[in-house]
Amino acid sequence: MANAAEIATAAARADVRNRWWLAAPALAIVLLAAIGPLVVVVLYSFMVKGDYGDVKYWQFSLDGWFSVIFERDVFDDTLKLADAHLTILWRSVKLSVITTLVTLLLGFPVAYFIATCDRRWRDFWLFMITLPFWTNLLIRTFAIQEVFRNEGVLNSALLWLGAIKRPLQIMFTDLGILLGMAYVYLPLMVLPLYASLERFDFRFAEAAADLYASNFKVLRRIIIPMVRPGIIAGSILVFIPSLGAYVTPRLLGGGRSLMLGNLIELQFGQGRNWPLGSALSITLTGGVMLALLVYVRAASKSGSGHHG
Amino acid sequence: MPEEKSAIEICDVTKLFGDAFKALDGVSLSIRKNEFFTLLGPSGCGKTTLLRLIAGFEYPTAGTIQLHGKDIATLPPYQRPINTVFQNYALFPHMTASQNIGFGLEMLGRPKAEIAARVDEMLRLVRMEGLRHRRTTELSGGQQQRVALARALAPTPKVLLLDEPLSALDYKLRKEMQIELKRLQLETGITFIFVTHDQEEALTMSDRIAVLSGGRVLQVGNPREIYDCPGDRFVADFIGEANFLSGEIIVATKDRAQVRLASGADILARLPDTAPQQGKVTIIVRPEHAEVHADGRPSPLSGTLESIVYFGTDTHLHVRLAHGDRFVVRRQNSPLQDAALVAGATVGVAFDLAAAQILRN
Ligand SMILES: Nc1ncnc2c1ncn2[C@@H]1O[C@H](COP(=O)(O)OP(=O)(O)OP(=O)(O)O)[C@@H](O)[C@H]1O
Ligand SMILES: [Mg+2]
Description:
The structure holds two protein chains of two kinds. Helices cover 72% and strands 5% of the residues of chain A. By secondary structure, chain A is mainly α. Chain A has a two-stranded antiparallel ribbon. A two-stranded antiparallel ribbon of chain A has the order 3-4. Chain A starts with a helix and ends in a 7-residue tail after the last helix. Chain B contains eight helices and 20 strands. In chain B, the strands form four sheets. A six-stranded mixed beta sheet of chain B has the order 6-7-8-3-9-10, with helices on both faces. A five-stranded antiparallel beta sheet of chain B has the order 13-12-11-14-20, with no helix packed on it. In chain B, helix 2 (97-107) runs parallel beside helix 4 (141-153). Chain B is elongated and about 75 Å long. Chains A and B meet through helix 8 and helix 9 of A and strand 6 and helix 2 of B. The complex binds adenosine-5'-triphosphate and magnesium ion. Magnesium ion is lined by residues 47-48, 163 of chain B.
């Protein structure tokens, strides 16, 4: 009696085998494209730095990790905290958080407007929102430079209007980086917010208004909690690339205001310290993952309806 | 003071969507306090639109709406002491049943203790005490309906609007909820404006019914008036079943007329003031008000019995009249059956004066 249970298990096993085969290409890509480079970077971070960049293979060293936080004084060889690194780290986190908040505050009304406007116009506005993506980031950033620099469009206009006496120094400041990043990443906030708001059933808003909720209360108690997934997605999409941003701070922050991305680039370029660059990269990746974990936890918990 | 008696006074309200489409066309209604008032009409006749105007989600193109004598037509919804039970319930999915029910009072800024007490009271009223902490997405249709009702009743509105609240429920639950709704209305004493396109529901629950069609009010009256004395053919046809006979008035007195039918027979029919007093008219006879016999006695109508359809409590007899029209007679089933009534028999159809009524054209 080749019983039914055996046949069923055999079939299930074949099924599992088949599924693995079908998933194999995807898995291979994931492994090669995502995990592979990460492994390389982790390995490099534990090796001795080469004299002209690169690393000395298979020579174990913790120097890379060590110099993320500490630096050795050139003269007396004493250890001290790597102030420059910590400053840059702090600036990166600060600017990324502010960028996320700014894009959220600017992006929500935009997404709301698009989601509630006449269906015929929605595609047009969405197209306008994504239009900047059609141009290279570098070129767009140069364009922003043109707007913000001391003799640029903004300052000329303000001077001409008499609103200011001397040009505002926006270029090469944190404000410049912030404005640039907010501009670059705004679409990444608007699109997921729009997706959530577009799916939002405005009858809920009517029901709340029927129950004496003012417009502001409707927004706070009904709309925002119900589009929370969009807010979370948008924030993540803006925060992650902000933290690792490279082009925008390089061009708008000049040499003075660096961010993590630039610091890392420096190590692989002029700094010729690949282990340190690798260690910084992993610190960045780890930091992002940690921040995400905390944020998603907090955001979805406050959405579970325990208020008042 | 006349306005003391009416809860909602709708005066000549017109609502345009776009430039030309009239969803409501000169609607005037006076809804009394503590009344169970039903808006009845086919799909698209403007019932929801009228409710939305009363709730404040839309504003009338012309006309006024008064609540207890005060004009409310321009107030936003959150300033009207009127609550709505929505057709799809629109319960907030991110809140529990209790939080939904307490939402209105919370928005009114009532103290927490009062809200909690009122929520408890409401949960008891709709018999949902056990499910207070459930998310509304985890409730059955009937339970959601009760929560929606409790949520709308909790702030003690002056008027409660119900937009087909029972249409999503199955037959048995709907019957139960009909009784429940009626009980709640009597217990709370709140004016209910109830929308349905189910005529039976309207007849059993309402104090008064307004029949709408194409954005106009065709007739307002209590269920008996609407059923027994329908003003025109649309109302007669929409509510209950009806046989229509055409004929011509020969002699008309104050409230009755002698009418010559197409078959040549003369019958007496009731003649309301609103109906034409001469010329060609339509007469309505309800199936249960007529009878069929096969014994050959003289009767105003005669024809062939085409089919006999058994319905449990009653039987429908389909008669093809001599001049071609169909006539349906409903008779209560009893243990004694008339053996002479078989399909194909030649039969007479009879009814008395009170059963036949002349309609407005
Ligand atoms: N926002 C709107 N814009 C344009 N036309 C509308 C709008 N709302 C309703 N209408 C139209 O107005 C008419 C009346 O609609 P309404 O929703 O009041 O009907 P109803 O009687 O509630 O029908 P149902 O029984 O199907 O719910 C319909 O023809 C509908 O298409
Ligand atoms: Mg409707």
